[in-house]
Design a protein that fits this description.
The complex is a heterodimer. By secondary structure, chain A is an alpha+beta fold. Chain A is built from five helices and nine strands; from the N terminus they run E-H-E-E-H-E-E-H-E-E-H-E-E-H. In chain A, about 30% of the residues lie in helices and about 40% in strands. The chains are: A alpha+beta, B alpha/beta.
Chain lengths: ~190, ~550
């Protein structure tokens, strides 16, 4: 069975212990199961000691489910949410430095930046640096458009995502109960 | 009470009722061994010949930078869900990260092969970490936990307060876990709807079949499993790790399943209309080809580990929970079934292979049967890995969990002797035997020194065919008879080796010699090696190739 056949970009959000070694444990799991991490973002949450990690991975749906299952099994992982595009909001920050010499080129870049609602955050005689937030596709679209100018450097943060409405990553589900059963500490 | 780190460790072990440890001292763990001397009356230390031997002994009991030598044992325990806590010491904090003498990133090495692991860098956190490690090792689906303690931590002092094991969840790190997630970490009831659905499925089934996996053994659910099998009246295949989960003499047993599964098991799996696997993970050695496995059946998976569901084989229904609890709930709701016709079909096929009577030589089945006949029924059996392992599992009857110790998941050659030592230390009243192949025995036979020194009366049977038999079998069947580097026509002379270690050794090549040797060994009350000569071309039968359809038996 070719597990990459129906693979598409999947986003997994998880809450984990903010302790040394946890990150490598999670990264290790992806490589052990044969996946490459496409994007990665981590940061503190409303709870001290808890870090939220968002990972993008190329996988089909049944294998994504298995990956979630494996992640939930790790001790430092509290919860894992497999986000779907319909009811989640995705944001990523991209900084892009393009070559823009002379006013004509500069104006062209600025016009494109405006269309994307990107911010101009640095300027020099030869370059412009833009900052843009948006989902993966929007960032990629701007990156592509700007490629007609010479792109000198790109820095992207990796996607963070959150569900719309009242749903949160802490929601109880039967599956979650089943996992806690498996790793219950008594 | 202010204690040194090494003493806190001893106290924490006592909290867990640990009275036996297996180990090997070295530079960084010297403080711990210093304290061990003080606690000698309460904690019995067994010095093995090699760290790997210690790791298998702890596994068999199921209860140093030598840390890297531990890895094989840790991986073995991990694959077979064995609850073992491994403790090693690392260099002191001021030397960490400098590639110091005997420094190794041991938690990094252990990461993929432990359920959880910890490095203790602060003596104040030592007691909490040890308590947490033991809780994790034995909770849920059991597994090994590794603790790496920095040398300076063992020499520093901290406040220690005795806390009985039952109260651990109200203290320290475990308390924090409970507070963090009020919903989690308690034992939720098994979903009654799931149970009812399975009861319904069982009622509709005309050809039900069961698989008894290692989870039944680890969960000590053998009584419940036997009741369950009897009430459904279903043929039951037993996996390698499931040995002892079902009474071996129960007439419902169809024998082993999978690559070396019996004809009865494999054909029944292919023909059944409902397959219920309890505590089994459908490994590639059992399911072989997941796409065609039990293709006529609705597959139901009962397991404590949610992440095993649908991992290897797509299931139709699953119940997540402790085997004992789930089986109890099922038995309560079921009425006695009768599947005489289905059983008649299944048991028309053999549950064990037959071997030609060799006359004045030995064959594997005869060897197993003779050992079983002359030894007590509850004899504990530890095996190494290879042909002898398959023969032992096919031809012995295991009746209770723990009776069979074998490395099923990781297939660790050299597992048996260490495991047998651990088993005998943990069960001094039982007879413990070690079944080895000549290849496996060579790997860790250094532990004979442990057998002799501590006078641990284990009888080792070497199924000696002068070859790496399982690999030879593959070479013969799959690699066109190309025998490459599997011949073991070389020393040592195992009889003399046993004698060199101060143990009895004897070579046997026929029934009469074998019986006499077993009787002598039993009477002597000390460790003994019985070197049993087998034909080099003896094969494990039946056999189905990896990835093949489960009834695609090779012509052997």
């Amino acid at each position: 069975m070719d597990k990459m056949k129906d693979a598409r970009r999947q986003t997994l959000a998880m809450l984990v212990d903010n302790e040394s070694g946890v990150l490598s444990q999670i990264a290790r799991l992806f490589s052990r199961k044969g996946y490459n991490i496409e994007a990665f973002a981590a940061g503190p949450t409303e709870n001290p000691g808890v870090t939220r990690i968002t990972i993008d991975v190329l996988a089909d749906e049944p294998h994504t489910e298995l990956l979630c299952n494996q992640l939930r099994k790790l001790y430092p992982v509290y919860s894992v949410k497999w986000l779907n595009t319909e009811n989640s909001i995705y944001r990523e920050l991209m900084l892009i430095k393009v070559k823009a010499e002379g006013s004509e080129q500069r104006n062209d870049v600025i016009q494109l930046a405006n269309i994307f609602r990107a911010q101009i955050i640095d300027v020099s005689h030869e370059t412009l640096t833009l900052g843009l937030t948006g989902d993966h596709e929007k960032l990629s679209a701007m990156e592509k458009i700007l490629s007609e100018f010479e792109t000198l450097e790109i820095a992207r943060t990796g996607v963070v995502a959150i569900e719309r409405g009242t749903a949160t990553i802490n929601d109880e589900s039967k599956e979650r109960g089943e996992f806690n059963y498996g790793k219950n500490v008594l | 009470m202010k204690l040194y780190g090494s003493e806190i460790l001893m106290e924490c072990l006592l909290e867990q009722d640990v009275d036996v440890v297996f180990g090997y001292p070295g530079g960084t763990i010297l403080n711990v061994y210093d304290s061990l001397l003080e606690y000698k009356d309460r904690i019995n230390h067994y010095l093995t010949a090699h760290e790997q031997g210690a790791s298998h002994a702890a596994d068999g009991y199921a209860s140093g930078p030598g840390a890297t030598n531990l890895t094989t044992g840790v991986a073995t325990a991990y694959m077979d869900s064995s609850p073992v806590v491994f403790i090693s010491c690392n260099v002191a904090e001021n030397l960490i990260g400098k590639d110091s003498f005997q420094e190794v990133d041991s938690t990094g090495v252990m990461l993929p092969i432990t359920k959880s692991n910890f490095q203790v860098t602060d003596v104040n956190k030592l007691a909490g970490t040890v308590r947490r490690a033991f809780a994790i090792a034995r909770s849920g689906r059991p597994g090994p936990v590794f603790i790496d303690i920095l040398k300076n931590v063992t020499a520093e002092q901290a406040e220690y307060e005795f806390i009985p094991r039952k109260k651990h969840k109200e203290a320290g790190a475990l308390k924090a876990i409970f507070e963090r997630d009020m919903e989690g970490f308690h034992k939720p009831a098994v979903d009654v709807e799931d149970i009812d659905k399975l009861v319904e499925m069982i009622g509709e089934s005309e050809r039900p079949m069961l698989i008894c996996g290692g989870g039944v053994v680890r969960g000590r659910a053998h009584e419940e499993f036997n009741k369950f099998a009897n009430i459904i009246d279903a043929p039951t295949a037993v996996t390698v790790m499931g040995g002892g989960g079902m009474n071996g003499r129960n007439p419902l047993v169809t024998g082993m399943i999978g690559m070396h599964g019996s004809q009865a098991s494999n054909i029944a799996v292919n023909e059944c209309d409902l397959l219920i696997a309890v505590g089994s993970r459908f490994s590639d050695r059992v399911a072989l080809d997941p796409e065609t496995f039990a293709s006529q059946a609705k597959i139901v998976h009962i397991d404590i580990d949610r992440s095993e569901i649908n991992k290897n084989v797509q299931t139709d229904h699953h119940i997540v929970g402790d085997a004992k609890e789930v089986l109890n709930m099922l038995v309560e709701r079921l009425t006695q079934q009768d599947h005489a016709e289905w059983k008649k079909f299944v048991f028309a096929y053999p549950t064990e292979a037959e071997y030609d009577d060799g006359g004045d030589t030995l064959n594997p089945k005869q060897l197993c049967r003779t050992i079983a006949k002359l030894m007590p029924d509850d004899t504990m059996v530890a095996t190494d890995v290879g042909q002898h392992q398959m023969w032992a599992i096919q031809h012995f009857h295991f009746d209770y969990p723990g009776q069979l110790m074998t490395s099923g998941g990781f297939g660790t050659m050299g597992f048996g002797l260490g495991a047998a030592i651990g088993a005998k230390v943990g069960n001094p009243d039982k007879t413990v035997i070690h079944i080895a192949g000549d290849g496996s025995f060579r790997m860790n036979c250094n532990e004979l020194t442990t057998v002799e020194h501590y006078n641990i009366p284990i009888i080792t049977f070497i199924f000696n065919n002068q070859t790496l038999g399982m690999v030879r079998q593959w070479q013969n069947l799959i690699y066109k008879g190309h025998i490459s580097e599997t011949n073991m026509d070389r020393g040592p002379d195992f009889v003399k080796l046993a004698e060199a270690y101060g143990l009895n050794g004897v070579r046997v090549s026929n029934q009469k010699e074998l019986e006499a040797a077993i009787k002598d060994a039993m009477a002597s009350g000390k460790g003994c090696v019985i070197d049993c000569i087998l034909d080099i071309d003896e094969m494990v039968r039946p056999m189905v190739g990896g990835g093949s359809h489960i009834t695609d038996f090779m012509r052997i």
